[in-house]
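Researcher: We're teaching a course module on how sequence relates to structure. For the next exercise, students receive a sequence and then see the predicted structure as tokens, so they can try to spot secondary structure elements on their own. Here is the exercise chain.
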Amino acid sequence: MLLLLFIIITIFTIFSYSNIYKINVSDYPPKTINLENINLYQDDKNFIQKDEWTLSIPILNLYNIPIIDSIEVDKLEDYIGHFPISSYLKGNICLAAHNDGFKNNYFKDINSLCTGDKLIYSYNNIEKSYYVDRIYTISSTDFSFLNLDQKDKLTLVTCISNSPLIRLCVEAVNKE
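Model: And here is the predicted structure for the students to work with:
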């Protein structure tokens, strides 16, 4: 468990060299993940067929980008990464991708998303629509976005250029 948290922190540190905004990190004090609930989503892992697991963001002309159950830097070269400790089906589904300086920078334009923009999360040939509800920044040491939530939502996370201590988060909620 601690090893996974260490890996996540290491990957976010590596991400810090490919970012989008200049923001004062002192405005965003670090928060921590609630480790008590870390395994509550593990049962729904069995429902995901990795070869049919995708994200589409039509407003950004991104369609059926494959998702992988990993946030390792080399995996994010070809996939959108899923934080394995987050939900897979319903709840807080947390995804990460590069935004600059890599072969595939799937989240390079998520900063231009607006409230109400549609995202489509697909698994096992079932599509669920999510709508952008909130866009915010966090410190690179803040993993609270991984915490359980009562909402069925997607949380997208990427680095911010020239601000290695800040991350951009986009939350989109399912209104069904």
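Model: If you want an answer key for the exercise: The beta strands are 54-57, 62-68, 80-82, 92-96, 118-123, 126-139, 153-159, 166-173. The longest helix spans residues 2-15.
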